[in-house]
Amino acid sequence: MTEPRDAVADLRRIAFLLERAHESTYRVRAFRGAAAVLRGRDPDELARLSASGELVRLKGVGEVTARCVAESVAGEEPVYLRRLEATVSSSAHVTPLDEAAAALRTALRGDCHSHTEASDGGSPLWEMAETARSLGHEYLVVTDHSPRLTVANGLSADRLRAQIEQVAELNEELGSGFRVLTGIEVDILDDGALDQDEDLLAQLDVVVASVHSKLRMPKAEMTERMLTAVANPHVDVLGHCTGRMVTGNRKRPESEFDADAVFAACAEYGVAVEINSRPERLDPPKRLLRLAVEAGCDFTIDTDAHAPGQLDWLGNGCDRAARCGVPADRVLNTLPADNLLARSR
Ligand SMILES: [Zn+2]
Ligand SMILES: [Zn+2]
């Protein structure tokens, strides 16, 4: 008889590939949900439930996922998974890398911008962490949104404090070799102030500051707003600086600001300019990225992942960084976690 496959691992692999291909959280939910329901059950039990047809009676397991499980427990790669593996390798959302970009990707040790289901991500903290580790990362900075971004269920001070504790507990479980770092993607308010308590910002490992509102503000005001944020001693990274959206049905032009002034301030205050790898953002645009290199800025190459599979998008940012002459020694997430923390504190 053929050895059964790990059905939960197969379901999670399907979800990962769908997420990496930028499928909506909604489409992925069936697979993540079924994997969560079946996680921890032994293979014999799964085989019995599958054979008796009881699997679909479990809340969270549907026809499609039950069929995948039946194939896995029979020792066959699920058809659904096999088709995905064959098609997504050519996905437009995973850029094939040339030598320089591949070297940069290899040099990256972690990711400084990611979201969990605590704000607008699709998966819990542990699942993001587990996926980051399986991708070979040494660390993942969790940067959920701040309170004013209500559409993204931004975290209040209390919820952020609870998350900091949750991260500490998870790190205990994970042991050595990988760790989750605490963080936030804090909104830059209209006047350049940051949308979270000072003492909390001071406590976090990494603070990414981003503009999410009033993106069409006049150039002079936007420049002031960004300069105020960059000068704030808590800020470590300037997130997706132009706010542009280049694909999809939410297309949006770049915000207007004095890039020379903002990048000069980033260099002066030691704030890294983020190279955002999301396919619909690819921010900053290449001409601004080259300007930031000339200005002497440091960088982070981040995924801004809202689902585990999106953590595999770092190559998109590496490709752009390599094309714009970003030197690896100015990319902060090539550093080991301790050195990164020494820089960000
Ligand atoms: Zn953002
Ligand atoms: Zn984000």
Structure write-up:
- With 345 residues, the protein is an alpha/beta fold.
- The protein folds into two domains: 7-88, Orthogonal Bundle (DNA polymerase, domain 1), CATH 1.10.150; 99-344, Metal-dependent hydrolases (TIM Barrel, Alpha-Beta Barrel), CATH 3.20.20.
- It is built from 14 helices and seven strands.
- The chain has a seven-stranded parallel beta sheet.
- Helix 9 links the parallel strand 3 (179-187) and strand 4.
- It is elongated, with a radius of gyration of 21 Å.
- It starts with 6 loop residues before the first helix and ends with a helix.
- Residues 113, 115, 185, 304 line the site of one zinc ion.
- One zinc ion (ZN) binds next to loops.
Secondary-structure blueprint:
Blueprint: H1 7-20, H2 25-38, H3 43-51, H4 63-73, H5 79-88, H6 99-107, E1 110-111, H7 125-134, E2 139-142, H8 157-174, E3 179-187, H9 198-203, E4 206-210, H10 219-231, E5 237-238, H11 259-269, E6 272-276, H12 286-294, E7 299-302, H13 314-323, H14 337-344
Parallel strand pairs: 1-2, 2-3, 3-4, 4-5, 5-6, 6-7
Bound molecules: zinc ion (2 copies).
One zinc ion binds at residues 185, 210, 212, 239-240.
